[in-house]
Amino acid sequence: MKKSFGAKFFAALTIFSLTGQIAWVVENMYFNVFIYKMFHATAEQISLMVSASAVAATVTTLLIGALSDKLGKRKIFICAGYVLWGLSILSFCLVREDVIGVLFPMAASASAVGVTLTIVLDCVMTFFGSSANDACFNAWLTDVTDESNRGTAEGINAMMPLVAILAVFGGFMGFDLNRRESWTTIFLIIGIGVILIGISGFFLIKDPSMKTAENQNYFKNIFYGFRPSVIGQNKTLYLCLAGFALFGISIQIFMPYLILYYTVSLKMDNYVFIMAPAILLAAVFTALWGRVYDKIGFRKSVLPSLALLGGGYVLLFFFRATTPVFLGSLLMMCGYLSGMAVFGAVIRDLTPANRSGMFQGLRIVGQVLIPGIIGPMIGSAVLKNAETVINDDGTVSFVPNENIFLAALGAATVLAIYLIPLLKAMKKRK
């Protein structure tokens, strides 16, 4: 029978998932805009920032996920982690050329120092964010759900990135992102908001009943998911993680440059009004698709998601007019978020009981590390000879082009080919 959830669970799931995703949207989409506009970062520097953050997220999730399993605690890591996460976001208020000039008077280039500081502080922020969200919030969500309701919960969880994008797009709409004062205000709002949500978790979140791993070696548990014996016992889980990595590579080829593509390449100053309906529709679709997963499972729900994603790529590659760009963005977002939902749900279903913390690091390897390194590298290579523009101060910036969607489609095609034998194997197991 399907297990029902209480109001506190839905409140905690919604608030913590949404707030975490808002912070990640600011990091994954707007930090790129921040260093592009404030410090004229290159595509290679943006790629480096995304990759460094992916490595930090993976290492953190491995360490903290295993620790939370050993202690049998999730709540304290989630709540305290969100508070520290918010404080780290506030530190970006100081990443400004005037402050850099005071702190590094001998620096030859304030822009170069600004890019470096952003990358370093991004990794610090990722440590706290991954401890709270990637390692412990996701482990908590796995602990408190089961196979009868995981698709429903994951559908809500997976739609939050789009809701977060909508909230951030709408919230940022009134800011001139070419002005440093705007960024200071943005970091203040996001940082304080994350801190307040962390505090609310002490009243909303309840630690699940779970067996602790206190008698086990902590350092061995960090690498638990990489043991050959564990891999052999959970082959389907690892095959699905590999598929998730391919899916993520496709997304990360274009995602770091998406807003820049809209604003710089397409010159869509009103992109928020165009994207908002697409985001809302995709969010509703994703929530419904999570329920579909509960009924028909991974095998029948993953390929439609991939087809939507590919259809969006095709429209975004071939067209630049408002209507087809809207339709392409809608299909891409529906495929992206519903794909995240079905991959996330099947990985939770296949995760061994009482080992969810240890396996969060493994999940991040597939979801973040591999895509976060390979995807931006491909995107950067595709944009290597992209058109450039001269800024008002004489510096040069690259202009993202539609080839990022063609490269993303190529990665999605590789995933589709990979899934054919995997889905057949999963069918035989049933």
Task: Jot down its keywords.
globular, mainly alpha, 1% strand, 15 helices, single chain, two-stranded antiparallel ribbon, Growth Hormone, Chain: A, 430 residues
Blueprint (SSEs and pairs):
Elements: H1 7-39, H2 43-71, H3 75-90, H4 97-103, H5 110-144, H6 150-172, H7 180-204, H8 218-222, H9 228-233, H10 235-254, H11 258-265, H12 271-318, H13 322-350, H14 356-382, E1 388-390, E2 396-398, H15 403-429
Helix pairs in contact: 1-5, 1-6, 1-7, 2-5, 2-14, 3-5, 3-7, 5-14, 6-12, 6-13, 10-13, 10-14, 10-15, 12-13, 12-15
| CATH topology term | Growth Hormone, Chain: A
Q: What number of structural domains do the residues give?
A: 1
Order of helices and strands: HHHHHHHHHHHHHHEEH
Give the termini distance in whole angstroms. Answer: 20 Å
Radius of gyration, CA atoms, in whole angstroms: 21 Å
Question: How many DSSP-defined strands?
Answer: 2
Could you give me the name of the CATH homologous superfamily? MFS general substrate transporter like domains
The appropriate CATH architecture is: Up-down Bundle
Uncertain runs with pLDDT below 50, 5 residues or more? Answer: none
Which outline best applies?
globular
Largest sheet strand order: 1-2
User: Which structural class fits the helix and strand makeup?
Assistant: mainly alpha
For the record, the CATH class is Mainly Alpha
**What is the tally of helical segments?**
15
Major sheet characteristics: 2 strands, antiparallel
Helix content: over 70%
Beta-strand content bin: under 5%
Mean pLDDT: 83
